[in-house]
Design a protein that fits this description.
By secondary structure, the chain is α/β, with parallel strands linked by helices. The protein has one domain: Glutaredoxin (3-Layer(aba) Sandwich). It contains 6 helices and 6 strands, in the order ααββαβαβαββα. It has a 6-stranded mixed beta sheet. The protein is globular.
Length: 170
């Protein structure tokens, strides 16, 4: 009987709008990190569950993009230098042929960071990153998964290094 009265009382309070729900903190990874729940290709293992708590550099590229290819040595050097400190480079391929084009690319270059295959939604701008108007496009995410920096076109190693070091110290 007591439970029924309590339930009725709660229902009445809710119906009258007397109870306000306290907004909850977002649960799980940021929308940017969730956008990276994509399949990977190539020899470097990828587990999106290891990204939260790390500084993540997301570079959108295509195999036909010469500036993207020219930037690969910089990305590899950054991963080698800062990876042990909690930094992760993630390459997202925007090739329309997807894995069919990216798999041989990733195997040939054997990069020291994962290569992800974008989906059709991402290619149409339906992700937290929005539309990627030019390649390469690079986003630097802090340890909470928030965008802390962005570059369009090739980014200089020195400028990116400074930004990465600053985020790693936080």
């Amino acid at each position: 009987m007591r439970r029924a009265a309590l339930a009725l009382g709660c229902a009445l309070v809710l119906a009258l709008g007397g109870c306000r729900r306290v907004p909850e903190e977002p649960v799980g990874p940021s929308p940017y990190l969730r956008s990276l729940w994509l399949p990977s290709v190539g020899p470097t293992p990828y587990d999106w569950r290891r990204l939260p708590g790390r500084v993540v550099m997301v570079s959108f590229f295509a195999t036909w993009c010469f500036p993207c290819l020219a930037e690969l040595p910089t990305l590899e050097a950054l991963q080698k230098e800062y990876g042990p400190q909690g930094f992760q480079v993630v390459l997202v391929g925007m090739d329309l042929d997807g894995a069919r084009m990216l798999q041989p690319f990733a195997d040939y270059y054997a990069l020291n960071f994962p290569v992800l295959v974008s989906d059709e939604g991402m290619q149409q701008g339906q992700s937290a990153f929005g539309l990627i108007p030019a390649l390469p496009a690079t986003f630097l995410l802090d340890k909470e998964g928030r965008v802390a920096g962005a570059w369009q076109g090739m980014a200089g190693h020195e400028n990116v290094s400074k930004a990465v070091e600053k985020l790693l110290r936080r």
